[in-house]
Amino acid sequence: MSNERSDALVFFGASGDLAFKDIFPALQGLAASGLLDIPVIGVSRSDWTRDDLVARARASVEAHGGVDPIGFPRLAKQLQYVRGEYGEHSTFERIKQALGQAKHPLHYLAIPPSGFATVVQGLADAGAADGARVMVEKPFGRDLASARELDLVLHKYFRERAIFRIDHYLGKEPVQNLVYFRFANSFLEPVWNRDHVERIEITMAENFGIRNRGKLYDELGAIRDVVQNHLLQIAALLLMEPPAGYDPEAIRDAKGQAFRAMRPLDPAEVVRGQFEGYRQEAGVAPDSDVETYAAMRIHLDSWRWEGVPIYIRTGKSLPITSTEVFVVLKSPPHAVFEDVRTASPNHVRFRLSPEVVIELGARAKKPGDANVGEEVNLFACRSTLNVLPAYHRLLADAMRGDQTLFARTDAVDHSWRIVDPVLGKDRPPVQPYAPGTWGPPAAASLLNGAGWHDPE
């Protein structure tokens, strides 16, 4: 089955926000490129007809890029709709009937994780899990224990090679470029280790708040929402050893090794913050202890990275919206030129959003008689406007069984192991910070006086 292309797509949560924002535009793109010539069955609790589903799909693409004159008619032709409660067996009997002769469907659970077990059980009871694949959204669990329980449910009916755990960040072109840039350029690998790297900073900043997601966000917080998945995945791509080839398992083996080397977080090396006014947001508990900001220091027990601190921070209501990796290289062992003693060290910067930038920070001599230098930045910049959307890529990969950009069970397990110490009673208290600032002042202490690199 692993090499068989999916012959039907069933997506649960067809009336939800994720479907409206990301799934319908991706399906239209796949149809336009000729990659969606299979039945597409939307499932939800909404009292809709097929025409209502088509209308919802049209409204979605109109709001996210426009109606494609080729892609949308193709998509509309394939759409079917099944209404029903996820806890009722009759719902899955209707799904089975709608699948017809399909032998290898892809079931996409675009629903909250609390519904995963119910849906998987319903598919299995109706015989719709046989020969199928299942794709699930993050967060995969709430902590290490719940993630393991969820894995047991999925593995009861699906083999690991048939399970596709989405982290849509892995489908983004700029994130994929991290791996390509690392291993396609011979000048980088010799210095990509503890002998030459002083520290690595990963920053995911957002200049907005929770955007009417109070109830949902208050159940998650920044660590569950983006650190355990997005940012630790980026860290693994930066820190992993060269994979033995580019097949899916080689990449995931290399990432898994990086995750295994990461120590569990020390609460003393984590700063949690909450922007002033968060508790007044709709749906947020008036005494909420949930973090909207998190900064932390991560250590790896590996030959390559021993002693190199990895700093991660993320937050809402910060000065700008940007995701950036900043790698600080060690200063030369001997300062031939006097001004180098007090100069900023060389760096490598990967800006992942809103635009793509790869920058090498160096020094060059100023014109004149004196041997005095200045900082120069060598960089390439590329717009992301015409880049393939993440969900387009991820859906296409899942339908053909390519798991390269999906999280494997060991990676999910280790990522929860890493953050678990700061999710329970031992988590550090939240500290207030003013909206529009870079978070609680205490976050600066993590870097031992070095100071964070703030994206501009």
Overview of this protein structure:
This protein has 456 residues and is of the alpha/beta class. It folds into two domains: 8-137, Rossmann fold, CATH 3.40.50; 170-389 and 407-447, 2-Layer Sandwich (Dihydrodipicolinate Reductase, domain 2). It contains twelve helices and 15 strands. The protein has a nine-stranded mixed sheet with strand order 14-13-12-11-7-10-9-8-15, with helices on one face. Strands 3-2-1-4-5-6 form a six-stranded parallel sheet, sandwiched between helices. The mean pLDDT is 90.
Topology:
Blueprint: E1 8-12, H1 17-32, E2 40-44, H2 50-63, H3 71-78, E3 79-83, H4 89-99, E4 105-109, H5 116-125, E5 133-136, H6 144-157, E6 163-165, H7 173-184, E7 197-205, H8 214-220, H9 222-239, H10 248-261, E8 270-275, E9 293-298, E10 310-315, E11 322-329, E12 347-353, E13 356-365, E14 373-382, H11 390-400, H12 409-419, E15 430-433
Parallel strand pairs: 1-2, 1-4, 2-3, 4-5, 5-6, 7-10, 8-15
Antiparallel strand pairs: 7-11, 8-9, 9-10, 11-12, 12-13, 13-14
Helix pairs in contact: 1-2, 1-3, 1-11, 5-6, 6-12, 9-10, 9-12, 10-12
